[in-house]
């Protein structure tokens, strides 16, 4: 049943004005309906997917300037997606310029990817929700991947309009139970399919051995230990079954407050310092319990802070950093800049682009996240201090900051396998609430916040500034962000490992019930063919030299970058009383007391940070060493590929990062062919001719929209002239004077 709600569209008996111009005349639609159905594209259903409702004679609108064009087809809604099935002859088939997803088609929208639904009534756009009394003549769907779809329903039968509109609203906006997600229908239908080994693509960190190996890789096994005290989730349901804690910590201490208030290891630096995280203790009003908590924290803190041998700095992310509300509000404003309905709207907002961008604060939030990571790196690298991140549940900003620190400090995390393992360790096993933060169940908007997308945007800034340091490309990050909304992968559809194991049948006592096996998002062959997967790997990646083990002498390994840095002098021995002050500071944070200052004065921190930051950037980068971002104003840019890929007006003809990379690949392939020709001098002439017959690739039709959209023609001047624009003339004239205008792709 459809839930009751507010009427989405206004009433009135006024006949709608015809505003749609189609290549198909209305009288032809009904007379040729039988013939058209024979041409329809077949609806491909995944295992367990069911058709819910459909409508024929729907026109998918392609809006450009003041004209409107449409493609005739059928609009369907299943329990997995909304799909438009048009004439397949209209779809271009160019292997070079297509990046096809095998799960989601070009005209498919997963139900979880729907952001907002609008209806057009008498040329007025209104939000649709609940049960409608009047149905729109046009349906507009805004997607979370920033696509915008327009469907004209004027020529569709009234009964079908009611069914498809009501069905789409209900199945995308009504609150759901976890077990009602398509995830489980798919897993049940594919239960008997042979399962693939997820460990081929990433370390899953679901066994004790995985943590042992990670400790050994980072040389943290001397001070930290992997524990199984939470096996079966008997201590805490928010923690994974296995994790790492300081070696002196007793197992009974872990269970004392159900896993809260415990320093949990994230990563170890080459100098022996470590990055840790800790959740806050429960808030108590009783004085006796408060004293117990204070004594507990005092004892626990000594496991990571033992001056003069080992010191720790606490970083309270709940009080002195971003809030989830700030992140959500900024992104809500930011995404509106890219949900463009037509060319007129694009050019109308383009003249105030920078002011709108600045008012969203999204780029400023990215800058603050990167700066916070660099500050923590300065403590680890230059001051030789442990860093303890504090947060209420240690599952949002802790995941974000700790992951950024590792991407910048650990070259392993900049490989595809290492990055996927990092996400598994810090986000999946770290208990990030993907189900709530992505609002997959549509139960509450209050918990929604794009924290993981913010992390990917921060990583993109690093990839954009230091491309040779990363094995993966920006296209990899873009398709990873899209995968947040594809519910055949279990990776991003649970709040904790416990919730996943409980719902997938792994804790079931029934020996006859076989646990459900879901796909991992890291198996990219599920979504892309091998040729398309090549766009996920960076051909210019500077790999780690094989003979880099030569400098392993002395107590601590020092990479060349560190040896050349003008580092801040490490503090020798803390003053008497420092330990007590730092412990009190930690207790206040864990007991929920908001404080205004860190232990280190802000001036001292700023001076050390600036010296460290400037010192690193004064020297050429080492792509297999420490990597720091540029934080200055213009250096933090818009992730153009993700946010602008569906807007034809924003494309760079023959340009953009991927098109440039394609040209470089052509040159590399040509060099390889020449080398093969030289090697083939001693072989037959036929072999030489065969090599010469291989035609070079061409990127002549590529644009900055590639690989997500084909080269599209668009007007070179705004539809609505404004006082701030000059007459631009034709495209050739625009190209000659391109430096006079701002290019959105370089923002």
From TrEMBL:
The cellular location(s) given in this protein's UniProt record come to:
Cytoplasm, Myofibril, Sarcomere; Sarcoplasmic reticulum
Stretches assigned to the Myotubularin phosphatase domain: 205-643
Question: Pfam families, alphabetically?
Answer: 3-PAP, Myotub-related
Give the superkingdom in one word.
Eukaryota
Q: Which PROSITE patterns match?
A: PPASE_MYOTUBULARIN (PS51339)
Gene3D superfamilies, per the entry = Pleckstrin-homology domain (PH domain)/Phosphotyrosine-binding domain (PTB)
Query: What SUPFAM superfamilies is this protein classified in?
Result: (Phosphotyrosine protein) phosphatases II, PH domain-like
Similarity field: Belongs to the protein-tyrosine phosphatase family. Non-receptor class myotubularin subfamily.
Q: What is the protein named?
A: Myotubularin-related protein 12
Naturally occurring in which organism (per UniProt): Rangifer tarandus platyrhynchus
């Amino acid at each position: 049943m459809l839930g009751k709600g507010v009427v989405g569209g206004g009433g009135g008996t006024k006949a709608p004005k015809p505003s749609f111009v189609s290549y198909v005349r209305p009288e032809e639609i009904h007379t040729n309906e039988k013939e058209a159905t024979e041409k329809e594209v077949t609806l491909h259903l995944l295992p367990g997917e069911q058709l819910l409702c459909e409508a024929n004679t729907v026109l998918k609108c392609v809006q450009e300037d003041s004209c409107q064009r449409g493609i005739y087809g059928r609009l369907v809604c299943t329990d997995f997606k909304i799909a438009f099935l048009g004439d397949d002859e209209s779809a271009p088939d160019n292997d070079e310029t297509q990046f096809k997803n095998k799960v989601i088609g070009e005209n498919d929208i997963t139900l979880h990817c729907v952001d907002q639904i609008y209806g057009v009534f008498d040329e007025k756009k209104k939000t649709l929700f609940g049960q409608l009394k009047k149905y729109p003549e046009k349906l507009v769907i805004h997607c979370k991947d920033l696509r915008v779809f327009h469907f004209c329903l004027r020529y569709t039968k009234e009964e079908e309009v009611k069914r498809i509109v009501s069905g789409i609203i209900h199945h995308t906006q009504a609150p759901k139970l976890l077990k009602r997600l398509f995830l489980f229908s798919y897993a049940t239908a594919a239960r008997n399919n042979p399962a693939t080994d997820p460990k081929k693509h990433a370390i899953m960190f679901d066994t004790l051995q995985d943590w042992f190996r990670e400790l050994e890789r980072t040389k943290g096994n001397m001070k930290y230990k992997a524990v199984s005290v939470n096996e079966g989730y008997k201590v805490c349901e928010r923690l994974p079954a296995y994790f790492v804690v300081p070696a002196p910590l007793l197992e009974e201490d872990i269970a004392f407050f159900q896993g809260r208030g415990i320093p949990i290891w994230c990563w170890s630096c080459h100098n022996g310092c470590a990055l840790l995280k800790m959740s806050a203790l429960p808030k108590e009003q009783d004085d006796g319990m408060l004293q117990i908590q204070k004594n507990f924290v005092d004892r626990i803190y000594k496991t990571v802070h033992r001056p003069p041998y080992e010191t720790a700095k606490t970083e309270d992310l709940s009080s002195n950093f971003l809030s989830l509300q700030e992140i959500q509000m900024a992104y809500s404003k930011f995404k509106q800049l890219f949900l463009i309905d037509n060319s007129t709207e694009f050019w109308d907002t383009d003249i105030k682009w920078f002011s709108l961008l600045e008012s969203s604060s999204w780029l400023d939030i990215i800058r603050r996240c990167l700066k916070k990571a660099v500050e923590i790196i300065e403590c680890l690298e230059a001051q030789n201090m442990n860093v303890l991140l504090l947060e209420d549940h240690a599952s949002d900003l802790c995941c974000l900051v700790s992951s950024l620190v590792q991407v910048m400090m650990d070259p392993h995390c900049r490989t595809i396998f290492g990055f996927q393992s990092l996400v598994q360790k810090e986000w999946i096993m770290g208990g990030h609430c993907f189900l709530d933060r992505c609002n997959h169940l549509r139960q509450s908007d209050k918990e929604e916040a794009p924290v993981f997308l913010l992390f990917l945007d921060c990583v993109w800034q690093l990839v954009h500034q230091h491309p040779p340091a990363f094995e993966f490309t920006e296209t990899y990050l873009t398709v990873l962000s899209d995968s947040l909304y594809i519910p055949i992968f279990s990776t991003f559809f649970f709040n904790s490992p416990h919730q996943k194991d409980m719902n997938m049948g792994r804790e079931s006592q029934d020996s006859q019930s076989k646990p459900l096996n879901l796909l991992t998002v890291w198996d990219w062959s599920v979504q892309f063919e091998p040729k398309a997967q090549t766009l996920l790997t960076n051909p210019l990646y500077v790999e780690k030299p094989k003979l880099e083990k030569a400098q392993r002498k002395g107590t601590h390994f020092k990479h060349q970058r560190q040896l050349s840095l003008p580092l801040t002098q490490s503090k020798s021995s803390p003053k008497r009383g420092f330990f007590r002050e730092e412990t009190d500071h930690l207790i206040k944070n864990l007991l929920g007391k908001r404080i205004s200052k860190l232990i280190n004065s802000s001036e001292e921190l700023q001076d050390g940070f600036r010296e460290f930051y400037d010192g690193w950037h004064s020297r050429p980068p080492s792509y297999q060493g420490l990597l720091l971002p540029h934080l200055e104003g213009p250096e933090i840019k818009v992730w153009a590929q993700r946010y602008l890929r569906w807007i034809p007006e924003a494309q760079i003809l023959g340009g953009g990062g991927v098109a440039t990379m394609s040209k470089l690949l052509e040159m590399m392939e040509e060099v390889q062919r020449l080398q093969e020709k030289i090697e083939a001098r001693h072989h037959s002439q036929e072999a030489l001719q065969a090599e010469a017959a291989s035609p070079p690739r061409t990127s002549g039709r590529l644009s900055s929209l590639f690989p997500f959209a084909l080269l599209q023609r668009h007007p070179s001047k705004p539809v609505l002239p404004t006082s701030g624009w000059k007459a631009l003339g034709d495209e050739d004239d625009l190209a000659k004077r391109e430096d006079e205008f701002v290019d959105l792709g370089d923002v």
